[in-house]
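Need residues for this backbone.
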């Protein structure tokens, strides 16, 4: 913004001082012409008429001394032109904005066409169909099935509450200690039973061995095999 204001001030000051510059420039130019021609002071008293016609300042001199001084203000015009070009490059965004507007129109108007409108019409058709045919059927089905669904949900909710209540009343540490004791007693009982069974098996084996041994001894005696 500061740079913009400085350019505006520069252009305004150049526009205001252009007339003073031309007047001073042509006065100095005319004085230099009189000095170069060697005109006398009496001849330098003249009646001048200043006419600005397309950037030309005309001085009318008496008798032979009439001269016309022409100036086109090339320097001032070039300065103003350069200032305008700088201004346009810095602050004239019309080409960029025009390109963006064209791109926006092409993407959202030409390519997309009337897709959104068609979608809106389809949605309107669906909603109209639902309103006319499906809404009453949905209401009837809801009146028919929602009470039983509510009853089932209430039963499930009560069961969940009972489970939660049992969970709150459940003392896990005591239950675990009791289960450990039970398992320990069962293991001890199992070990004792296995020991008793092993003893019985050993005793039975020993008895059978003794019986077999006595049988063969008696058999040898009967057959006189003994030496």
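Answer:
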């Amino acid at each position: 913004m500061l740079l913009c204001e400085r350019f505006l001030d520069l252009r305004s000051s150049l526009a205001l001082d252009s007339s003073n510059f031309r007047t001073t420039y042509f006065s100095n130019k005319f004085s230099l012409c009189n000095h170069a021609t060697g005109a006398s002071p009496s001849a330098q008293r003249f009646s001048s008429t200043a006419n600005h016609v397309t950037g030309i300042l005309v001085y009318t001199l008496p008798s032979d001394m009439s001269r016309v001084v022409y100036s086109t203000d090339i320097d001032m015009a070039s300065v103003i032109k350069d200032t305008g070009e700088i201004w346009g490059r810095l602050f004239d965004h019309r080409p960029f904005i025009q390109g963006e507007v064209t791109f926006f129109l092409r993407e959202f108007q030409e390519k997309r066409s009337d897709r959104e409108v068609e979608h809106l019409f389809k949605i309107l058709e669906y909603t109209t169909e639902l309103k006319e045919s499906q809404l009453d059927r949905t209401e009837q089905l809801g009146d028919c099935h929602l009470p039983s669904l509510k009853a089932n949900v209430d039963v499930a909710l009560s069961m969940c509450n009972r489970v939660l209540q049992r969970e709150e009343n459940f003392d896990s540490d005591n239950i675990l200690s009791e289960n450990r004791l039970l398992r320990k007693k069962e293991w001890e009982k199992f070990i004792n039973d296995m020991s008793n069974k092993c003893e019985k098996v050993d005793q039975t084996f020993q008895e059978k061995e003794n019986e077999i041994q006595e049988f063969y001894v008696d058999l040898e005696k009967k057959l006189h095999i003994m030496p």
